[in-house]
Design a protein that fits this description.
Layout (H helix, E strand, L loop, with lengths): L4 H5 L3 E3 L6 E3 L2 H6 L5 H4 L5 E4 L2 E4 L9 H5 L5 E3 L7 E3 L4
Length: 92
């Protein structure tokens, strides 16, 4: 029997970079975004809408980079965390 996605994600650990590797550079453009694809494509659910404002975090990022490619306004500045920080995969 295989593992569920939640069970697999629970095996990951994260070392948060003191300088976040994700930045939203224009929150007004986000408010004007109709489809809000970042909230749908992020496998770690790091992008959420609270009281009509985008809230995001970089802690727990799986480092797939999907958010930067899917953003129609190109306002998500995403880079890999500094060496030694970020996600740690236990089983490859």
């Amino acid at each position: 029997m295989g593992w569920t996605l939640d069970e697999k994600l629970a095996t990951l650990t994260f070392k948060e970079d003191p300088n976040p590797h994700i930045e939203v550079t224009d929150k007004i453009a986000c408010q004007e975004c109709q489809d809000r694809p970042c909230t749908h494509v992020c496998p770690a659910s790091l992008y959420q809408w609270l009281e009509d404002q985008l809230v995001h975090t970089s802690e727990g990022c799986l480092e797939c980079g999907s958010c930067r490619y899917i953003c129609p306004s190109d306002v998500i500045d995403w880079t890999y965390p500094l060496g030694g920080y970020g996600v740690r995969f236990h089983w490859g």
